[in-house]
């Protein structure tokens, strides 16, 4: 509903009062009354379980005059910001302390309100991702000339020989669950000009859903 008000201008200051002449706010000639406009809206976040950062920050900033105040929704429901131990506002941004998978997973929206109206931000998804402890190895690379980068997953072969020809399979193992997934066979076919190569690399492809125990 529209709030009736009265305006009184004195010495370049405009005072806005309600119907009972109670001061609502004041502004200068340089200020322009307008409804909120988003400067920054929240975006999708994937939070790693076990992260060293105990807090998630969903960004939201709006401008307007009078200055807007903020509310947040999770999955369409208003968030109780009085839960100060778990939620707090940083400006208009929502900080979630010690995020929990079941309680905090979902879609979030920011609302900015002043006396001229309310705006609703786009939806931002908060998801939780496992912190994967992985071990990568390639089947068929027991030779000391062959080594695997645990950072990239690539297989490197030094001083390539004809005996290196064949199929290689990348296997990624979760160090915690001891479950593995393997990619499709990657063939190595040598040309005559490759035999002089000092270092050859095979790039790991995305593993299939095949699981080994």
From TrEMBL:
It comes from the Eukaryota. Transmembrane segments: none annotated. Signal peptide: none annotated. One of its GO terms (cellular component) is plasma membrane. The keyword Disulfide bond applies. One of its GO terms (biological process) is brain development. SMART domains: IGc2. Residues 36-127, 136-182 form the Ig-like domain. Keywords: Disulfide bond, Immunoglobulin domain, Repeat. GO terms for molecular function: cell-cell adhesion mediator activity. The keyword Heme does not apply. PANTHER family: CONTACTIN 6, PROTEIN SIDEKICK. This is Ig-like domain-containing protein. The lineage of its organism: Eukaryota, Metazoa, Chordata, Craniata, Vertebrata.
């Amino acid at each position: 509903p529209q709030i009736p008000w009265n305006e009184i201008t004195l010495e370049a200051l405009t005072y806005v009062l309600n119907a009972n002449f109670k001061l609502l706010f004041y502004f200068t000639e340089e200020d322009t009354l307008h409804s909120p406009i988003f400067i920054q809206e929240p975006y999708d976040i994937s939070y790693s379980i076990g992260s060293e950062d105990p807090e998630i920050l969903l960004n939201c900033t709006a401008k307007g005059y009078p200055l807007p105040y903020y509310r947040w929704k999770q999955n369409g429901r208003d968030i109780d910001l009085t839960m100060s131990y778990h939620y707090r506002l940083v400006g208009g941004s929502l900080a979630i302390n010690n995020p929990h998978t079941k309680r905090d997973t979902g879609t979030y929206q920011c609302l900015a309100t002043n006396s001229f109206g309310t705006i609703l931000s786009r939806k931002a998804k908060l998801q939780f991702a496992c912190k994967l402890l992985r071990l990568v190895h390639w089947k068929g690379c027991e030779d000391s000339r062959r080594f695997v980068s645990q950072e990239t997953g690539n297989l490197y072969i030094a001083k390539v020989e004809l005996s290196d020809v064949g199929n290689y399979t990348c296997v990624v193992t979760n160090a915690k669950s001891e479950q593995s997934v393997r990619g499709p066979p990657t063939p190595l076919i040598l040309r005559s000009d490759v035999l002089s190569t000092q270092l050859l690399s095979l790039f790991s492809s995305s593993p299939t859903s095949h699981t080994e125990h």
